[in-house]
Amino acid sequence: MRNVFNFSAGPAVLPEEVLGEAAAEMLDWHGSGQSVMEMSHRGKEYMSIHAQAEADLRELMGIPASYKTLFLQGGATLQFAILPMNFLPQGKTADYINTGEWSKKAIKEAQLFGKVNVAASSEERKFTCVPPRGEWRLTPDAAYVHICANETIGGVEFQSTPDVGDVPLIADISSNFMSRPIDVTKYGVLYGGAQKNLGPAGLTLVIVREDLLGHVRPNSPSLLDLKQQADNDSMVNTPPTFAVYVAGLVFRWMKRQGGVAAVERRNIEKSNLLYDYLDSSAFYTNPVARADRSRMNVPFTLPDAALDAPFLAGAQERGLLQLKGHRSVGGMRASIYNAMSLAGVQALVDYLRAFEKQHG
Ligand SMILES: *Cc1c(COP(=O)(O)O)cnc(C)c1O
Predict the structure, then answer these.
(1) Which of 106, 155, 160 has its CA nearest to residue 128?
(2) Burial tier of 209 (Cβ tally within 10 Å: 0-12, 13-18, 19+)
(3) FRET pair for 257, CA 20 to 30 Å: which of 115, 138, 189, 246?
């Protein structure tokens, strides 16, 4: 057992059970005499790992047969470009909701490919909320509407799926993947990197409604054509085999936890514990509107930035790792993904209280 709690925003903590399984199978997967890393991606052993991971993902998220699930590379950041290449035809407009740093990056990349309308933004409110649906100025007949479901840096999260009518809704769920049940049928595309909630870096998941595929821009590289990826079971080239395998172990762990609904209950408990303490204290501040607070990423500041270094040093001493906030916002950030235990959040709250007592 490790005696630390890792609050990294990503790559992030993985369930210890999963790391133990991967370690035990490292040299010889299921009597095959091979590490998963050494297997041909076309061999029957790896194909079974890939198929099982996909089946478990589909079961956990309730993904209907009319959606394709893709295991790709390039991170969510490459999807920022792949989305307009595949779903924004020349002459059409894509609507983006700007709720923070990741939204901004998605917008910037989409602008390389076509017309982007920022239909609503909370930038003037320092990204401390989701702009109310009533403020959104959507384009009639837009190609799609894009949201970042959870802003990992600002700690702002959509608590429900916005209604955008018949226009396909696309969501970046990198940092709240499988942290709460989600009605996949309300989305055209869901996507995210694995390294926050699902596994190691190097794997990107894309869940896409099949009827949206097949309109990639001419002259697009094969790897960036989601239809080709779908038609080839994500094997246009070598998929990130080891990362898919570890994500598959995480999916099985999720099932043992009772599935996404059970994991959500724990996530509510964990985030309430932390926010309740922050709110009860005059020492720590979280700037996000209560209704829009993220259950996954909790930024907070101390009353004086000069206290940041001693705070982090004391945390490190107690085995509370990677609490430093993102360089763009400063302060602290506790990422409390699916694999973070309630005991970890309790240890953090105990430390927050002790530090406040000493310095408050
Ligand atoms: C981490 C993150 C990204 C970027 O992911 P990469 O895999 O590094 O490209 C994009 N969006 C959100 C919401 C993230 O948390």
Answers:
(1) 155
(2) middle
(3) 189
Report residue 56 as tokens.
């478990």
**Smallest Cα–Cα separation from 332: which of 360, 357, 301?**
301
For residue 314, the CA-to-ligand 1 centroid distance in Å is 29
The verdict on whether 102 is a catalytic residue reads yes
Q: Whose structure tokens read 């990992």?
A: 152
- Please say if 276 is a catalytic residue: no
Pocket of ligand 1 (CB under 6 A): 10, 75-77, 102, 148, 152, 172, 174-175, 193, 196
Active-site residue, from 102, 104, 270, 324? 102
141 labelled catalytic: no
Give me the domains of the chain, ranges plus CATH numbers. Answer: 17-257 (3.40.640.10), 259-359 (3.90.1150.10)
CA distance 128 to 288: 4
Q: Indicate which residue's Cα is closest to atom 13 of ligand 1.
A: 174
* Residue 82 backbone zone (phi > 0: left; psi -120 to 50: alpha; other: beta): alpha
Percent of the chain residues past pLDDT 90, beyond the cut: 98
CA of 192 to the centre of ligand 1 (A): 7
Q: For residue 343, list its beta bridge partners.
A: none
For the residues 159-169, what does the mean pLDDT come to? 98
Q: Look up residue 35 and give its two tokens.
A: 């590490």
Residue pair 136/311 in contact (Cβ under 8 Å)? The answer is no
Non-local (6+) Cβ contacts of 310 within 8 A are 359
Please state the pTM of the whole predicted model.
Answer: 0.98
Taking all residues of the chain, what is their mean pLDDT, rounded to a whole number? 97
pLDDT number for residue 330: 87
